[in-house]
Structure formats: structure tokens, C-alpha cells
Amino acid sequence: MDGLLIDSETVAFETFQDACIELSIECPFDEYKGCIGTAGKERDKILQRALGGEQHMSALSEIWKRKYSQRIKNRSIPVKKGVHVFLEHLNNYNKPKIVATSTLTSLAEEKLESCGLLHYFDKVIGGETVANPKPCPDIYHRAISSLGFPADQVVAFEDSEFGVLAAHSAGIDVYQIPDLLPPTTTSTKHATGVYRCFDDVLHSS
Predict the structure, then answer these.
(1) Coil, helix or strand at residue 194
(2) Neighbours of 3 (CB within 10 A)
(3) How confident is the model at residue 205 (pLDDT cuts 50, 70, 90)?
(4) Average pLDDT over the chain, rounded to whole?
(5) Which pTM does this prediction carry?
(6) C-alpha distance from residue 6 to each of 12, 14, 22, 117, 145 (Å)
(7) What residue spans of the chain are helical by DSSP H?
(8) Contacts of 185 (CB under 8 A, 6+ apart)
(9) What strands, in cross-sheet order, belong to the sheet with 173-176?
(10) 157 phi/psi in degrees, rounded to 5
């Protein structure tokens, strides 16, 4: 969802930078980028390494969360290019659609509702419902079970390397639409295809 359907990863990084400035901490994008596609404890571990320990994590997390919440409350998160048209196109096939995200289910639903996307999906499965986050395949195994289709009849779309690896490990064909980071050698190897945006997906079909 984040970085694929909505441009929330940009908002996350901008508010992260604002929190760092408030605490006089430096964390360049090259160090921050490791946490893209993660959430919760896994993201915090990556940031702790980038910041050189736990000293600033508690205050940083609190300020970052507050700034991010204020930002998305005051300004709707932009929808990524071609998403509405693509989802409308999928409705013609009458197939179930699920969001499998590292974000908490309630927050994911709130974001999708505010962007006018929630009604397109039959279910949202958040990161708190599985033991292991992406790149582990847990959330995709759960999604497959909810869909009621075998893995070889399911298609996933992801923006990050971790997401691509999670879907691929679950036996799903996965297409990558990169967001803030270009596709890595690893994600290109495991992705069935790579597109610039959802418009390109439609034009290729």
C-alpha cells in the first residue's frame, strides 16, 4: 500500500527529516532507505543502526509519529499515478482484491478511506496479524488463505525489495512498481516484471 497505491513513503521520509531536525540528529536518506518497506520493531532496528544506537530512538519515534499523523490529517496523501484507473479496470473481472501491508490494519484502512481507495478492496491485512514482517512471506500466506485461490492463481504488486521477496517466497507472481528506490538486482531477479507506474501495467496488457 505505502509507496505503491499512495505516496505515503515520501510523507514518511519528509516527516522523519523534520523529527531529526527538531532533535539535531543527522540521518541521510542513504541510511534511512533501509527501513523502506518495513514497519514496527524491524524498522526501529534498522534506524537504531543508522543512528548509532538507542539513545535517540524513543524521542525520535514519538516526534516522528506525531508529525506524520498531523501531516496526513491536515493533508490527504496523494494517490500514485494510474491507481484509480487500474483498480476500476480490475473491477471488470470480478476477482477479489486484498491489501497486504506492513502497516497496522486500522491505520491502513484509514489511509485508504481518506484517499478514496478502500472500497476497491475486499479485505485489508495489516502487519500486526502475522508473526514475521516482510521480507518473510507470512502476510502473503495469510492473503492467499483469505482469497481462497492457490498461489499460482494470485498476482501481487509491490514497490519495495522486501515486498517482492515476501510475495515471491509465497509462490506468487509479483510485479514491482518502484517508489523512492530503484529496483535492486535482487528484486529484479525475483519479480515477474517491473513497471514505472500502473498506467504502464494497463498499456502492457
Answers:
(1) strand
(2) 22
(3) low
(4) 91
(5) 0.87
(6) 12, 15, 26, 9, 25
(7) 8-22, 29-32, 40-51, 57-74, 83-91, 105-114, 138-147, 161-169, 185-190, 198-204
(8) none
(9) 155-158, 173-176, 193-194
(10) -125, 135
- The CA distances from residue 41 to 31, 37, 138, in Å, are 17, 13, 16
In order, the DSSP letters of 18-58 are HHHHHTT----HHHHGGGTT--HHHHHHHHHHHHTSSTTHH
Assigned C-alpha cell, 171? 509462490
For residue 143, give the C-alpha cell: 492473503
- In sequence order, the 6+-apart residues with CB closer than 8 A to the CB of 67 are 15, 18, 19
pLDDT digits (tens, 9 = 90+) for 74-101: 888 999 999 999 999 999 998 999 999 9
Grid coordinates representing 82 are 494510474
Position 29 scores a pLDDT of 87
Rounded CA separation 56/48 (Å):
8
Report the b/e string of 52-70 with b at 16+ CB within 10 A: eeeebeeebeebbeebbee
Provide the β-strand partners of residue 125.
100
pLDDT of residue 156: 98
The reply to whether omega before 135 is within 30° of 0 (cis) is yes
Is residue 72 very low, low, confident or very high in pLDDT (cuts 50, 70, 90)?
A: confident
